[in-house]
């Protein structure tokens, strides 16, 4: 492992081994460390050399096969969530890389979580396009929206004018899931037609206009 100029040694532990008849073993723990900066997955090799100058000409340098060292902190930010939660950071969505241009632009406009992104998408899609610098018809846009709408999160909307606190529960695609007709009385979408008959169309129109 080569030294990193001005930084802490990346290889920690007892790295001085005793050679016996051409063989040595790593008996103590040797580990990799990191700095405060996130490191992308990189290829490394371990190299062993003798420290006795008199033996350098007679003992060849030993080199391992290349292996990948992964920074778990970076992996946690770069892995995408198949079913993201509303509180997940936007970097867990497809096409939005951690510290990438889309992530940075969204964060700079206080769009940090999936909930923030969906709220902006439904209330001001034009502004959403401007922030991401994408057109709504492009493939990247479609993949971002599809990834966001894979969430099983829900939105609760209560009518502030109604003291009885009636309202609706919508999924992330703004599809009606539950109707709240009075405190502690909830009617699921599949039973609304049975209870209210044709009045269900009114709620569907409300859903479309949200």
From TrEMBL:
Annotated GO CC locations: nucleus
GO terms assigned for molecular function: calmodulin binding; DNA-binding transcription factor activity; sequence-specific DNA binding
Domain of life: Eukaryota
Biological process (GO), any one: regulation of salicylic acid biosynthetic process
Entry-linked Pfam families: Calmod_bind_M, Calmodulin_bind
Domain Calmodulin binding protein-like N-terminal: 2-72
Residue ranges of domain Calmodulin binding protein central in the record: 86-150
PANTHER family recorded: CALMODULIN-BINDING PROTEIN60, OS02G0177800 PROTEIN
Protein name, per record: CALMODULIN-BINDING PROTEIN60
